[in-house]
Amino acid sequence: MTARHVGRIAVIRSRHDERATGPTETHHDARYPAETESSRPCFDPRVRADIVICGLGPAGRALAYRCLVRGMSVIVVDPNPRRHWRATYAAWTDELPAWLAGTTLAATVALPRAYGLRAHTIPRSYSVLDTGRLQRSLDITGATVLTGRATRLDRHIVTLDTGRTLQAERVIDARGLRRRPGRAEQTAYGLILDDPGPDEPALFMDWRADNGADPGSPRSFLYRIPIGGDRVLFEETCLVGAPPIDLGELARRLRCRLRARGIPVRGDEPVERVRFPVVGGAPRPGRFGAAGGYLHPATGYSVGAALAAAGDIADGHTRVPNAARAVYRLRRAGLRALLALPPSELPGFFDAFFELDINLQYAYLSGRADFAGTVAAMTRLFAGVPPGTRARLAAATLHLPPLSPPGSGSVIME
């Protein structure tokens, strides 16, 4: 079933590269993951440890690091453990744990701006992570690193595609989310440019209609953030669609928007392409990161939440509170609500969101187990939008047939 597309709230993502073949075992200095790993043969058909973590994206690597700090024996499994991360990761600064090295921050914006139909200043600090430093800081020296693919995960046993089994006190699935036909995805196309100057604010979300898109077409917005070294990421973003806005169209819109704002493009700038699913995980014991429901299905956030929770999971606090399950269901309802809105109503919807008290914004965006806060935020937002938008939000949230203006083509994605 197709669905209406909307713009993305942040470039927080935990992509997992499934490309790899053959199991090899390494012990390595993970501060230099591509240069210093050395292979050695696997002698035992069964390996035991305190914990086996499947997946070495930001969530899995952070958990492995925090387990090693606690003196645990750790096995990590990934199809390509030497892979260098390339994505841009960012988070609200107050989400980041105290143990995270300050050198991992590439840039911090004290008061990011947003535009719906009008301008908003968000009184919440926003930080962009230095991807390379983040990966190196999550040092997994001392872990047993296996190159391979897990085909079955049980409570204490992992089976690899070779038939080899691993045994541990705990098994954690941190493999992220897989793309599947019909699954809602987030897409974005970005260019890394020289900083236009201090007078240009960081834009968390800019819905202004200067990207050349037809007024009735699916909406996208500009995400403009400093990434350190006098560089700025300009990214045309789509929150979610099934199917999403394709990258070629986002690239065209971005270039049109930059021309309209007088920002020159040479043509040889570094490019960032983003495409990943926003649904498919679930908050369950034994899962972590996007696979465990840490990815906010209505916003795309995941890395900040995973970093914040890695220490607790390492300590064995794996029970999922009922409040977290309930909040995840509310967030899925929020996703349906966004998908139900016709393009013309999205800027006004986000005006209402950014006019909420910052504590309510925090509850909805970051309160993974804050059921009361999430309900309060959604209730206040519902009251702040126009009556027509309110009716569509209610229908989508309650799984009722879509209430769309004639010819809008808007549908609810199930």
TrEMBL record:
Database matches in Pfam families: Lycopene_cycl
Region (Disordered) spans which residues? 12-39
The organism's superkingdom is given as Bacteria
Q: Where is the composition biased (Basic and acidic residues)?
A: 14-39
Among PANTHER family, the record links this protein to:
OS02G0190600 PROTEIN, PTHR39757
* Protein name per the record: Lycopene cyclase
Question: What organism does the UniProt record list as the source?
Answer: Nocardia speluncae
